[in-house]
């Protein structure tokens, strides 16, 4: 994770992370859990950049939404964090401006 931007987007998969990385720092979780290693990476990134972390999983089922909320609650204790609960996935959005709008609005 580099300090290229002041926003880090956590996604569920590589394709969504790739789409977000055109404008933001991005980290694919490769699932719906935040590992201890990734937790440390994210909190260290936040401390060094004073940046905001955005949790944007696919939200395609109640279980995923629950896991996204758990990740948000865990991180929000230590970092500036936003949770995006939309059914739109970054990998399915065609325009960078659509991704930026969702991340800026936080929903």
Report on this structure.
The structure is a single chain. The protein has helices spanning 14-20, 36-49, 62-76, 96-105, and strands at residues 7-11, 25-28, 52-56, 80-83. 43% of the residues lie in helices and 17% in strands. It is globular, with a radius of gyration of 12 Å. Helix 3 (62-76) links the parallel strand 3 and strand 4 (80-83). The two termini are 24 Å apart. The chain has a four-stranded parallel beta sheet, sandwiched between helices. It has 107 residues and is of the alpha/beta class. The protein has four helices and four strands.
Give the ordered list of helices and strands. Answer: EHEHEHEH
Q: Which residues sit in consecutive blocks of at least 5 with pLDDT less than 50?
A: none
Give average pLDDT, whole number.
Answer: 93
Structural class assignment: alpha/beta
Helix count equals 4
Radius of gyration: 12 Å
Number of strands: 4
List the helices and strands and how they pair.
Blueprint (H helix, E strand, L loop, with lengths): L6 E5 L2 H7 L4 E4 L7 H14 L2 E5 L5 H15 L3 E4 L12 H10 L2
Parallel strand pairs: 1-2, 1-3, 3-4
């Amino acid at each position: 994770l580099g300090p290229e931007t002041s926003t880090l987007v956590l996604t569920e998969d590589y394709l969504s992370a790739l789409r977000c990385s055109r404008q933001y720092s991005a980290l694919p979780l490769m699932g719906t859990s935040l590992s201890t290693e990734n937790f440390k990476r994210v909190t260290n990134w936040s401390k060094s950049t004073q940046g905001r972390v955005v949790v944007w999983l696919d939200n395609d089922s109640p279980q995923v939404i629950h896991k996204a909320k758990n990740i948000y609650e865990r991180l929000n204790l230590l970092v500036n964090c936003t949770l995006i609960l939309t059914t739109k996935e970054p990998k399915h959005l065609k325009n960078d401006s659509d991704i930026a709008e969702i991340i800026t609005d936080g929903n």
